[in-house]
Amino acid sequence: MNKRGRNTLDAPIAITSVPVSLDDQFDARRRKYLIMMGLRVVCVLAAVITYPTSIWLALALIVGGAVLPWCAVLIANDRPPKHATTFVRYKPPPVERMLEAGSGSAVPSTPVPPGSTASSDRTAA
């Protein structure tokens, strides 16, 4: 039971766009490589068998046996492309910057005569 009172075993988990695991991808690539290398062995053996009857067929099978390892390595090292992901960055809500009204005013209510300072007039009064 979880905090909400539900049994966690009964609650289904829906995963819709999960990519294939790396182990499964590796196994599939290894399987393709082994199939292609097995096909290469078949091509070379078939070339040996067909050489007495047709030299052109034997040469075509030899070329196929020579090209297959290169293709097998390319396919074995290939993996599905990465999907472009977009990051959703945090954007804080806009803050209205305003000064709050203070208890006193910064501007004196009585005008200050020219040539005198505001602090000397206040202390004299």
Topology record:
Layout: H1 22-50, H2 55-77, H3 118-124
Helix pairs in contact: 1-2
Short key terms for the protein model shown above:
mainly alpha, 125 residues, 3 helices, 0% strand, 47% helix
Description:
- The chain is mostly helical and 125 residues long.
- Helices cover 47% and strands 0% of the residues.
- The radius of gyration is 41 Å and the shape is rod-shaped.
- The relative contact order is 0.09.
N- and C-termini, Cα separation = 77 Å
> What is the mean pLDDT?
77
Which structural class is indicated by helix and strand composition?
mainly alpha
Order of helix and strand elements from N to C terminus: HHH
What's the total number of strands? 0
Beta-strand percentage range: under 5%
Count of DSSP-assigned helices: 3
Using only CA atoms, what is the Rg?
A: 41 Å
Low-confidence stretches: none
Query: Which percent bin holds the helix content?
Result: 40-55%
Please summarize the sheet with the most strands. none
Overall morphology: rod-shaped
Quickly describe the structure.
This protein is mainly alpha-helical and 125 residues long.
